Amino acid sequence: MLTLRGTPSLRRGADLQDLSIIEDGAVLIRDGLVHSVGPTRRMENLREARDAIEIPVHGRVVMPGFVDLGLRVFLPSTRRKSFLKMRNDASTLLGSCLHYGTTSLELESGGSDDPADDLRLLRQAVKIGVESDVVYSWRLRLTGKRQDEGWENRLADQLRYVTKRHQARFLTLDPGGCSLDVFHRFLRLVHSSGLRLKLVSRPERGEEFLRLAARYGLTSVTGPSLCPGGSLDMIASLPFAAIFRPLLDLAHPVTEQRILASFITASGAPVLASGHDEQSPGFSMQAAVELAVLRHGMSLEQALSAGTINAAYAVGWGIDRGSLEVGKRADILVLNLADYRDITHQLGINYVGMVIRRGAVVFNRTSWRVSATAR
Questions:
Q1: Quick one: average pLDDT of 156-183?
Q2: What's the CATH code of the domain at 363?
Q3: Which of 272, 297, 314 is the last residue of a domain?
Q4: Out of 47, 96, 287, 335, which residue is the most buried by the measure of CB atoms under 10 Å away?
Q5: Which of 264, 294, 314 is the endpoint of a domain?
C-alpha cells in the first residue's frame, strides 16, 4: 500500500521519493473518508472494522487516486460542435479518466481571442462533473493587439460574472504577445477578482513575467511543452509548482527533455498532468507517469508523488486528497500489480482494477462483488 503520507505541502527533493509504503496494509473507510490506515493485522482488531465490508486486495498495489490538472475539453476550435455534443464528449472523457485512475481533475476552458466567447464555454463546462471532483479554470489568452480604452472595465465585469456564479476557481493566464505593462494590469484585475492565478509561461517572455506573476500569488506554472519556459532554476526556487505534461512531448527529441531530473535536483516542486487537449489526445495519468520515468529522468517514486499529492496541493486539494491519511477523502486505486515498480514495464496498459471515490466503488474490473447481505 502506497499511502504517500508525509510533509503537508508540495513535495520537493528527497520528500518526492517517500511513498510511505505499508507492505501488508489496510484502510478503513467511513462516511467516504479514511477512518484508519495501517498494517492489516492491527486494522483487523479495530472495533470499527468488525462489521465493515471487506474488499480483499491481496497481491495487488493500493494507492491514492491520481489528480490531473489542466484538461482542456471546451476549446474555441471545437465550437463548430453543438454545446450538447461538447458536453457529451466531455462527460465521456471524464468517465474514461476515472477508469484509468483519475479521481479528481481540473477542467480548463477558454483561450479564444475574445474573453466574451470564453464565458460561453465556461457556462457549458460547469454543467458536467461533480463540484467536489472537478475544479474549473478559465484560460484567458492575451494578445499583442492594442487594447482599447474600455478593456479593463469589460474584463473586470467578466471576472465578477465568473466569480459570482462560481464558474471558475482558477484563472490560467496566457500572456501571449502582450507587453509587460499590459500583463501587469491584467494581473491586478485577476488578483482583485479573487480567482487563483496560474500562468502559461513561454520562453520568449522572459523571467520578468514569471517574477511579476509570483508577486500576485501564482499557484503554478506550465508551458506549451514539457519545459514551462524561463529559467528552471529560478522556477524551482519559487514556492509554486511547475506542471509537466510528458504525453504532449512525445513528438520532441528525447535529448531535449532530460530536464525533470535537474529540476528536481534544484528543489523544484513537479506536478505531472496528462495535458489533454487538441494537440495531445492522451488522458491517462498512468502513461504520464510512465513517460516521465522512461523518457524524462524521473524515478517512479518521484513521478507517483508528482501525479498524486503534489497535483492535489497545486490545485488547493492537498488537505483533502492525494494521499491515504486519516480524515482525507477515500479516493483509492487498486492496481492489478503485485509490485508498484512494475508500472513502467508495459507502456499504455491500464493496470487499474478498481476505483474507489469518496468511499464508493465506482469502477470494478476485479472478481470481487459485494454480497447481497452487505448491501
A1: 90
A2: 2.30.40.10
A3: 314
A4: 335
A5: 314
In the chain, % of residues over pLDDT 90? 57
155 and 301 together in one domain = yes
Q: Answer yes or no: do 258 and 120 share one domain.
A: yes
The enclosing H or E element of 362 equals strand 360-364
**For residues 204-217, average pLDDT:** 85
CA distance 306 to 17: 10
Query: Residue 227: which pLDDT band, with cuts at 50, 70 and 90?
Result: low
Contacts of 18 (CB under 8 A, 6+ apart): 4, 6, 11, 301, 305
Beta bridge partners of 33: 30, 329
The length of the chain, given as a count of residues? 375
Residue listed under C-alpha cell 502506497: 2
- For CA atoms 163, 169, 174, 175, the dihedral sign is positive
Residue 128, amino acid: I
Four-point Cα dihedral 147, 149, 152, 158, nearest 10: -90
Mean of pLDDT values over 134-158:
82
Contact status, residue 354 vs residue 363, Cβ threshold 8 Å: yes
Distance CA 239, CA 113 (A): 31
* DSSP helix/strand/coil, 125: helix
Based on the domain organization, do 155 and 43 belong to the same domain?
A: no
Boundaries of domain holding 251: 66-314
Q: Between these two residues, 59 and 85, which has the higher pLDDT value?
A: 59
Q: How many domains does the chain have?
A: 2
Task: Tell me, yes or no, whether 232 and 125 share the same domain.
Answer: yes
- Residues 228, 294, single domain; the answer is yes
Over residues 102-119, the pLDDT tens digits come to 999 999 998 887 888 888
In a domain, 367, yes or no: yes
| Domain match, 194 and 222 both | yes
Overall pTM > 0.85? yes
Residue indicated by cell numbers 511547475: 242
CA triplet 151, 156, 159: central angle to 5 degrees?
125
CA nearest to 89, candidates 47, 49, 125: 125
Report the chain's mean pLDDT, rounded to a whole number: 88
CATH code for the domain of 96: 3.20.20.140
